[in-house]
């Protein structure tokens, strides 16, 4: 919009088209309607009525989809103006009438004044001067009531042209003076705005310079804090790693001890089992040994019972020797 106001049409179009690309991506239909409307206005300034009409019709279509009542009225008014520039006066009047109906409904006073003046100009071109005069007077009155210098200027120019056609040169001159006053007022207002802008620009640059120094000092402090935070984070990270490493070692040691305990317990069970086996074997062996000894003793007793005793033999041998 700034580029459009400055008359830099290519830059204005470039930015409006970038805007509408993003609005399509995020499905911002209200924004699309505004951007299409603005593109239409830029082409109208260029004098490219075909493209202006195309974009204004596209804007109208989207605004009707989302029921943007104020936007619909604006698009219809723009389309009427384009048709007027193209010389299609019936279509121009029809669109301006539709726009007026909506604007009266929503009490858009500025829009009403604008439509009335546009319709007055079309009617004058259609040689319906008296009808146009009535609408132009209504527009001039309303523009003064709402104190809109640009609209007063437009309606004054329309009335001047009508008075000239009617041969009422005194009234035409009066309207011409009003036109010039409004032009001067607008220019003074613009000059005042430029002066204010320059003052704000100076204050902004002065504050920006001070902010720059302040920002530099703040940045130094931020950098120092950032460095300290980084060092602290690094230290905390090292401590965490040492802690995690210690925990891993402790867990590994506990796992080792637990495994050793299981092995020792298992070995103890095996040893106890083997001891039981050995004890049982020893008891069994002792029992067998007793059985053998008992058998030997028994055999000896039998042998002793069956054989002549040694003493008897010795006595008999002694007797024989005698």
Walkthrough of the structure:
Helix 6 packs antiparallel against helix 7. The termini are far apart. The chain has a domain of 107 residues: Tetratricopeptide repeat domain (Serine Threonine Protein Phosphatase 5, Tetratricopeptide repeat, Alpha Horseshoe). The model has no long low-confidence stretch (mean pLDDT 86). It has 322 residues and is mostly helical. Helix content is 91%, strand content 0%. The protein has 11 helices and no strands.
Strand content: under 5%
Briefly note the CATH topology name of the domain at 1-107.
Serine Threonine Protein Phosphatase 5, Tetratricopeptide repeat
Helix content: over 70%
The CATH H-level homologous superfamily of the domain at 1-107: Tetratricopeptide repeat domain
**Largest sheet properties:** none
Order of helices and strands: HHHHHHHHHHH
According to CATH, what is the class of the domain at 1-107? Mainly Alpha
**What overall form do the CA principal axes indicate?**
rod-shaped
Key descriptive features of the protein:
322 residues; mainly alpha; Serine Threonine Protein Phosphatase 5, Tetratricopeptide repeat; 0% strand
SSE layout:
Elements: H1 2-6, H2 9-25, H3 29-46, H4 49-65, H5 69-86, H6 89-105, H7 109-125, H8 129-145, H9 149-166, H10 169-306, H11 310-321
Offer a concise description of the structure.
It is built from eleven helices and no strands.
């Amino acid at each position: 919009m700034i580029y459009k106001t400055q008359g830099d049409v290519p830059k204005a179009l470039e930015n409006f088209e970038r805007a509408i690309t993003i609005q399509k991506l995020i499905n911002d239909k209200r924004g699309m309607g505004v951007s299409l409307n603005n593109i239409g206005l830029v082409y109208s300034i260029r004098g490219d009525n075909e493209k202006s009409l195309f974009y204004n019709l596209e804007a109208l279509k989207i605004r009707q989809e989302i029921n943007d009542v104020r936007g619909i009225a604006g698009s219809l008014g723009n389309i009427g103006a384009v048709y007027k520039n193209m010389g299609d006066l019936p279509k121009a009047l029809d669109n301006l009438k539709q726009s007026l109906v909506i604007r009266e409904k929503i009490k858009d006073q500025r829009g009403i004044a604008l439509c009335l003046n546009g319709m007055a100009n079309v009617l004058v071109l259609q040689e319906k001067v008296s009808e146009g005069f009535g609408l132009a007077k209504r527009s001039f009155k309303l523009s003064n009531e709402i104190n809109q210098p640009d609209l007063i200027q437009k309606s004054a120019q329309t009335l001047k042209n009508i008075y000239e056609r009617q041969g009422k040169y005194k009234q035409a001159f009066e309207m011409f003076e009003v036109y010039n006053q409004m032009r001067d007022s607008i220019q003074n207002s613009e000059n005042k705005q430029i002066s204010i802008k320059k003052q704000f620009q100076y204050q902004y640059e002065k504050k920006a310079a001070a902010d720059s120094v302040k920002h530099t000092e703040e940045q130094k402090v931020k950098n120092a804090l950032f460095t300290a935070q980084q060092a602290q984070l690094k230290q905390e990270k090292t401590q965490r790693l040492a802690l995690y490493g210690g925990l891993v070692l402790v867990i590994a040691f506990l796992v080792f001890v637990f495994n050793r305990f299981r092995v020792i317990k298992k070995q103890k069970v095996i040893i106890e089992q083997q001891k039981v086996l050995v004890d049982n074997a020893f008891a069994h062996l002792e029992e067998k040994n007793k059985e053998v000894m008992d058998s030997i003793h028994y055999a000896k007793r039998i042998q002793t019972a069956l054989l002549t005793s040694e003493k008897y033999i010795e006595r008999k041998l002694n007797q024989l020797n005698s």
